[in-house]
Amino acid sequence: MQNTRDVLTPDNLAMLLAIAEAGSFAAAARALDLVPSALTYRVRQIEDALDVLLFDRSARQARPTDAGLELLREGRRVLEDVDAIANRVRRVVTGWEPQLTLSVDGVISPTTMLELVEAFYALQPPTRLKWRDGILSGTAEALASGHADLAIGVTGAANVAGLQSAPLGELRFIFVVAPHHPLARAPEPISDATLRAHRLVAVADSALRGNVTMGILAGQDVFTVDNMRAKIQAQLRGLGGGFLPEPMVRPYVEAGHLVVREVVRPARTVPLSYQWGGPGAAAPGRALQWWLSQLQGPATRRALLENHHHF
Q: What backbone phi and psi angles, to 5 degrees, belong to 201?
């Protein structure tokens, strides 16, 4: 029997991910240009070495078991780490990073980010860009874990050795509801007791073990979504109230689709930053240097927080 190191190779992990994505052994075999029997044999070798069943074969589809799901999660992380190592090695030769990954918080203007991406590509660099969405502590976690090179829109100060940080600006959050929501007619300032009786729409922390929350009262009903766009849409439908960045909802407020309500809770102005570096990080390559130079501009920093009119 093969040992686990013999079977948990990058090629085999990529094969298992391909099976899960394709939904069947036959479809994965076609995608990988393999004979189905050869694919099945390789999977059985992995299962024998680990002494677990990775896929439920009782149905027509190949559904990962609980053990399979765990291996897929860890396998995806291992492959990302392998790519990161290869990228760091290649960067030494050219000075340009083969890939630069940006972790961008949901409060950052996508319009301004895409304008920066357009300007970067106009240089015709050899660097590929990757944009990862982040929320709350998840934005910085991608950087600290080595899965991003630059985090934009970080809440709180850098607390990981080696991380560099610079201020991006401050963002004011306001409490808004749809005009037909009961809180739109509640006497102001609205007390915590009144807020607690109504559902709050919240965005989930994107960190793997994230538990950062903002504005949730003890015992309050919460509808949790994955991104700011969904949060705005939920509040426009009257599914709940909640705090949102003022620049992001300004067009909806001006159009009367959302109503700003004064609450007893103190006003919330959140300082944001951008961060780079981290444990074991090399000196910034030419791509990261370009992005850092852009972020030094006051107009760019302001646009990243304010330019939500076409969101």
A: -100, 125
3-class SS string, 156-223: CCCCCCCEEEEEEEEEEEEEEECCCCHHHHCCCCECHHHHHCCCEEEECCCCCCCCCCCCCCCCCCEE
- How many Å separate Cα 300 from the centre of its chain? 22
Exposure string of 178-188, with b = 16+ CB inside 10 Å and e = fewer, is: beebebbebee
CB 173 within 8 A of CB 244: yes
Alpha helices in the chain, H assignment, sequence order: 4-7, 10-22, 25-32, 36-50, 66-94, 110-121, 137-144, 192-196, 228-236, 246-254, 286-295, 298-306
Q: Which amino acid is at 6?
A: D
Does this model's pTM top 0.70? My answer is no
What pLDDT is stored for residue 210 in this prediction? Answer: 46
Query: What average pLDDT score do residues 162-191 get?
Result: 94
Other Cβ atoms less than 10 A from the Cβ of 190: the count is 19
Closest to 224 measured CA to CA, from 249, 251, 206? 206
State both tokens at 176. 């808004």
More confident residue, 218 or 169: 169
**Which pLDDT band, with edges at 50, 70 and 90, does 89 fall under?**
confident
State the average pLDDT over residues 181-191.
95
Q: Are 241 and 198 in contact (CB under 8 A)?
A: yes
Angle CA(38)–CA(42)–CA(45) in degrees, nearest 5? 140
Write out pLDDT tens, residues 96-114: 988 999 999 999 999 999 9
What pLDDT is recorded for position 158?
Answer: 55
Could you give the CA distance from residue 103 to residue 216 in angstroms, rounded to a whole number?
25
The number of residues making up the chain comes to 311
66, pLDDT greater than 50:
yes
